[in-house]
Amino acid sequence: MVIPFAKVESVGNNFVLINALDMPEMNWSSLALGMCEHHFGVGSDGLLVISRSSVTDFRFRMYNPDGTEDVCGNGMRCGAVFMFKHGFVARRSMSMEAMSGIINVDVVCEAGMTGARVNMGVPGTRPEDIPLAAGVAETQDLRIEVDGQTFIANCVSVGTPHAVIFADREVFRDRIPPVSARIEAHPLFPERISVTWVQVESPDSLVVRTWERGVGPTLGCGSGACSALVAANLHGLAGTSASVRSPGGVLRVDWPNRGDVFASGPARIVFEGEWPA
């Protein structure tokens, strides 16, 4: 038995995608462990699973390389482009059933490039949205102590939580700070957390690098880009729209009227293959 798959990516955030519309349920977490492995598998930042839904155009699931299920903005946009390109959804505006609820995505084709705009919903900034450890009441300007160092984090959840840390670009220009792994697993975050380092270049331009929980450093992150804009806006450092640049490329993030937050950018199918089950 072989499992057909596609390799997809957006701003360097790359995934293995399985079209499971006509497949039986499998142990997707276990499959993610094998397929996402860079040396002995396909190699990716996560496994995307597309299956049937009775309430939306399709069901979307994402599994980190460590097998944990999570929410992924870039993965959602890649999934929508795959469904449109292969004709499974004829409309450019579609909906998917995801871990974080019903998600709406618009596929965009401009100047020969295909991408998508995803509505990530209303950002969460309450302690229970992250969640934080019992008794911790503030999500903004949260002091995190690691190895004698203090980091100031601003916690935002767009289906998956991020600790946004404002810093000079020199801190994360060449590589993401190794302390990110310690922050991810800090006792303040009982379900772990992704860490997004941000330099505000101007009110409409941010530079970011993200360490994703269950993954490690990635070249791009849709939820991280959204969280960065939300945190920067709440601190008066950015407006409600910005270009968010990561090592893998640029996403456009919009937070109109501080309601739903949207991420837009390119997404593509890199190649397709088969995995021996």
Give the topology, please.
Layout lengths: L1 E9 L2 E7 L8 H8 L11 E5 L6 E6 L5 E2 L2 H13 L7 E6 L2 E10 L2 E7 L22 E5 L2 E9 L3 E6 L12 H6 L9 E9 L2 E8 L3 E3 L3 H13 L6 E6 L2 E6 L7 E5 L1 E9 L1
Parallel strand pairs: 2-3, 4-6, 11-12, 13-15
Antiparallel strand pairs: 1-2, 1-18, 3-4, 4-5, 6-7, 7-8, 8-17, 9-10, 10-11, 12-13, 13-14, 15-16, 16-17
Please provide a written account of the structure.
The chain is mainly β and 277 residues long. 14% of the residues lie in helices and 43% in strands. It has helices spanning 28-35, 73-85, 179-184, 222-234; strands at 2-10, 13-19, 47-51, 58-63, 69-70, 93-98, 101-110, 113-119, 142-146, 149-157, 161-166, 194-202, 205-212, 216-218, 241-246, 249-254, 262-266, 268-276. It has an 18-stranded mixed beta sheet that branches. The model has no long low-confidence stretch (mean pLDDT 97).
